[in-house]
Amino acid sequence: MILRDATSRDAAGVAALERDLFGVDAWPLPVVVGELAGEDREAVVAVEGDTLLGYACTARGGEVVDLLRIAVHPARRREGLASRLLAAVRDRAAEAGAERMLLEVSAANDGARAFYAREGFAEIGRRPRYYKDGTDAAVMQLRLGGRE
Ligand SMILES: CC(C)(COP(=O)(O)OP(=O)(O)OC[C@H]1O[C@@H](n2cnc3c(N)ncnc32)[C@H](O)[C@@H]1OP(=O)(O)O)[C@@H](O)C(=O)NCCC(=O)NCCS
């Protein structure tokens, strides 16, 4: 397994995982292409040969970096892949001078919320009915550069 920067050749694999994991909130292929290639975007993939195991995408805006997505193939969870993907995009954000990382996660997504909490994110707010299925989002924040 290696981690590397995403390229346009990863878009189809990312879009397929999006469909499987995020249902009505999945990014369609043209959105994935834009997210992997955008100027203020960072995207890292975990791959084994030609197989996509997971990915993380961020968007930079001033001192804040938004974690737009992090996902791991269901067959490869609890192996530390998401931790490694998050470390990769977190290090890049800190090197680029960002002071905090923010994310929205479904309030119903206990697994992801446990993962983020273990990685040091703290819940700082809620966005009611943020997702298309009507569930709320929890807004979580991680201070970068050891300033928690
Ligand atoms: C959330 C997600 C990215 C975690 O990926 P992962 O590769 O399994 O996570 P890791 O193996 O790096 O987990 C590191 C630690 O986080 C915590 N953790 C991860 N998943 C967890 C879960 N489902 N329940 C409770 N704790 C969890 C554990 O402490 C874990 O360490 P441990 O396995 O030694 O107990 C993965 O479950 C996923 O892709 N979910 C679907 C997509 C999603 O909801 N993404 C987030 C919103 S964009």
UniProtKB/TrEMBL annotation:
Could you tell me the EC number(s) of this protein? 2.3.1.266
> What PROSITE patterns does the entry give?
GNAT
Top-level lineage group: Bacteria
Query: Pfam families under this entry?
Result: Acetyltransf_1
Q: Which reaction does it catalyse?
A: N-terminal L-alanyl-[ribosomal protein bS18] + acetyl-CoA = N-terminal N(alpha)-acetyl-L-alanyl-[ribosomal protein bS18] + CoA + H(+)
Q: What is its main location?
A: cytoplasm
InterPro entries, alphabetized = AcTrfase_RimI/Ard1 (IPR006464), Acyl_CoA_acyltransferase (IPR016181), GNAT_dom (IPR000182), YpeA/RimI_acetyltransf (IPR050680)
What keywords is this UniProt entry annotated with?
A: Acyltransferase, Cytoplasm, Ribonucleoprotein, Ribosomal protein, Transferase
GO terms under cellular component? ribosome
Going by the record, the broad EC class of this enzyme is transferase
One GO MF annotation is: protein-N-terminal-alanine acetyltransferase activity
Localisation:
Cytoplasm
Give every N-acetyltransferase domain span.
1-145
Q: Which NCBIfam families match?
A: rimI (TIGR01575)
Identify its protein family. Belongs to the acetyltransferase family. RimI subfamily.
Q: What does this protein do?
A: Acetylates the N-terminal alanine of ribosomal protein bS18.
Official protein name in the record: [Ribosomal protein bS18]-alanine N-acetyltransferase
Which species is listed as the source? Nocardioides jiangsuensis
